[in-house]
Amino acid sequence: MSSDRKTVIDAKGIVKKFNIGKENELEILHGIDIKVYEGEFVSIVGTSGSGKSTLMNILGLLDKPTEGEYVLDGTDVSAARDDELSHIRNQKIGFVFQTYNLVARTSALKNVELPMLYAGMSSRARREKAEKLLEIVDMKERKDHTPDELSGGQKQRVAIARSLGNSPSIILADEPTGALDSKTGRIIMDLFHRLNEEQGITIVLITHSNELAEETERVLTLKDGNIIGERKGANYGFGKYKTGAYGACG
Ligand SMILES: Nc1ncnc2c1ncn2[C@@H]1O[C@H](COP(=O)(O)OP(=O)(O)OP(=O)(O)O)[C@@H](O)[C@H]1O
Ligand SMILES: [Mg+2]
User: Fold this and answer.
1) Residue 100 falls within a domain, yes or no?
2) How much is the average pLDDT of 4-11?
3) Residue nearest to atom 28 of ligand 1 (CA)
4) Which ligand gives the minimal distance to the CA of 47?
């Protein structure tokens, strides 16, 4: 599929074991091959415990595979040192999680600024970019509010703004709508569609919702640590997700 497009994620033979050498050693991923192309919107589905988050943590350089090769955006990261991995991760990848992972007692604006602070951006540049990103996710009016003053959907929009701080080429989202009602989930999904279409950001989405998965370009099914199926999203590109909740993302 899409073989004329640049490959941004190219992982081969990914094996992940936990508790290596111990009595309770577990092999969770059994040799996964996965490619994702530039600008693609791919979803990963599968039952609880099938290894989706384990795989995403490896693709996002949060964890290392036990075996396998991984080329991320042209860089072979299989043998990279930890400091190199965190540098590449900060430059290329934005994460969005089910539980938002915002810093408590810290304003939306400061939350969005944090990754830019770690990347060494000046305070003025950070502030300007964070405000722009909060505007994109329609959260500018709530920029001075702390996470406990925001609804789940609002927190997730702040988390998405934060994920965009270092202008990542890839967003990895692990059940971003899992804790939200379907209407709020719809708004979050629309935002991902817009970031994908208007900014060309490659998105890998883990979801338990078949309905949302069918809207994505390609759906990968994971079962017991293997990819057992790959198909086109049945409703990809039909435009039925366009609720008009967001204007241009640029
Ligand atoms: N650090 C760890 N040590 C031992 N086992 C682990 C570890 N992390 C995950 N596992 C196991 O790996 C398997 C896959 O977990 P994973 O979190 O990847 O599943 P998942 O597909 O994301 O499930 P869910 O849909 O519930 O989020 C599970 O059996 C889990 O218990
Ligand atoms: Mg998971």
Assistant:
1) yes
2) 94
3) 49
4) 1
> What is the tens place of the pLDDT at every residue in 221-250?
999 999 999 999 999 987 656 655 544 443
State whether the Cα torsion 103-112-52-153 is positive or negative.
positive
Residue 48 lies in a domain: yes
Q: State the residue range of the domain holding 146.
A: 38-64+81-232
Please give the distance, rounded to the nearest whole angstrom, from the Cα atom of residue 222 to the centre of ligand 2: 11
**In a domain? residue 32:** no
Q: Which of 57, 141, 143, 159 is nearest to 103 (CA)?
A: 159
User: How far is the centre of ligand 1, averaged over its atoms, from the C-alpha of 31 (Å)?
Assistant: 16
Q: Give the dihedral of Cα atoms 9, 137, 118, 124; nearest 10 deg.
A: 140
Answer whether residue 92 shows pLDDT above 60: yes
Question: Taking residues 42-58, what's their average pLDDT?
Answer: 98
Structure tokens at 13: 């033979």
If you write DSSP's letter for every residue of 113-177 in order, what string do you get?
Answer: HHHHHHTT--HHHHHHHHHHHHHHTT-GGGTT--GGGS-HHHHHHHHHHHHTTT--SEEEEESTT
Report the chain's C-alpha Rg in angstroms.
18
Q: What is the pLDDT of residues 201-227, one digit of tens each?
A: 999 999 999 999 999 999 999 999 999
Pairing status of strand 75-76 against strand 93-97: unpaired
Is the beta carbon of 163 within 6 A of some atom in ligand 1? no
pLDDT for 243 equals 57
Residue 41: closest CA among 221, 171, 166 = 171
